[in-house]
Amino acid sequence: MLTIEWAKNPVYMDDTGNIINLTVKFVEFNDPMLFAATSYDPEDYGRQFYANAVAGQYGPVAPYVPPAPIPPTAEQNKSKAVNLLTQTDWTAAEDVGNPQVANPYLVNQAEFLSYRSALRAIAVNPVAGDIQWPTKPTEQWSS
């Protein structure tokens, strides 16, 4: 069993409250180390660290702060644009919006073509980061 010299800086590591990271200095080691204490640790000392941290013995437990989202890469944005284009390929078929050959026909085919044009611009010249995606039109069919 290791001997604790000190423990400090407890912080919840997820939104369940079941994991607390803290900095621990064991007598048996030269340097402090990060320790993840859990309520379900298979070792008694791990569960005890957790209980002590919750009880405030190492100071107040800082709340969980989720990591900042990672912005999409240009390749991820391109992939999403291509996927959205694929989902609406059928709207570009000539007969879908032609009342002479289709009954019912897609009344707002021009909106879909404009939407697809905006997606194609992203697919052809993708950029990294969060971008403003065009809004997909809602299908409007003739009666």
Uncertain spans, ≥5 residues at pLDDT below 50?
Answer: none
Adjacency order of strands in the biggest sheet: 1-2-3
Give me the secondary-structure category. alpha+beta
Strand tally is 3
* Number of self-contained structural domains: 2
Compute the average pLDDT: 94
The global form is: rod-shaped
Helix content: 25-40%
The Cα radius of gyration reads: 28 Å
Q: Can you summarize the main beta sheet? A: 3 strands, antiparallel
Number of helices: 3
Spatial separation of the terminal alpha carbons: 78 Å
Task: Summarize the helix and strand pattern as letters.
Answer: EEEHHH
How big a fraction of the residues is strand?
A: 15-25%
Architecture blueprint of SSEs:
Elements: E1 4-12, E2 19-26, E3 33-38, H1 44-54, H2 74-87, H3 109-124
Helix pairs in contact: 2-3
Write a concise keyword list for the protein shown above.
143 residues; alpha+beta; 2 domains; 3 helices; 16% strand
Please tell me about this protein's structure.
- A hairpin with a 6-residue loop joins strand 1 and strand 2.
- The mean pLDDT is 94.
- The termini are far apart.
- The chain is of the alpha+beta class and 143 residues long.
- It has helices spanning 44-54, 74-87, 109-124; strands at residues 4-12, 19-26, 33-38.
- The protein has 2 domains: 4-54, no CATH class; 71-143, no CATH class.
- The chain is built from 3 helices and 3 strands.
- The chain has a 3-stranded antiparallel β-sheet with strand order 1-2-3.
- The radius of gyration is 28 Å and the shape is rod-shaped.
- Helix content is 29%, strand content 16%.
- Helix 2 runs antiparallel to helix 3 (109-124).
